[in-house]
Predict the structure.
Amino acid sequence: DTADAPWTVIKSDDKKRARLNCMRHFLSTLDYPGKNKKIATPPDPLIVGGAGHVIHRADHILGTALHPDTRHVAN
């Protein structure tokens, strides 16, 4: 998850809610002609969020995928 390539994570325990919130995420973030902001509302933040929010910067999950400058060093 970087500024150049941000990740969006959708919790999918409930597949129907996950699909609906995925669509809500895209419709609310993209600009398009005729967009109705009353209909294209943001997704549920408990279901859709950034990768940092979901994995809490856990090195055991990311391992060596993190840039060396952002890795946590055990003391």
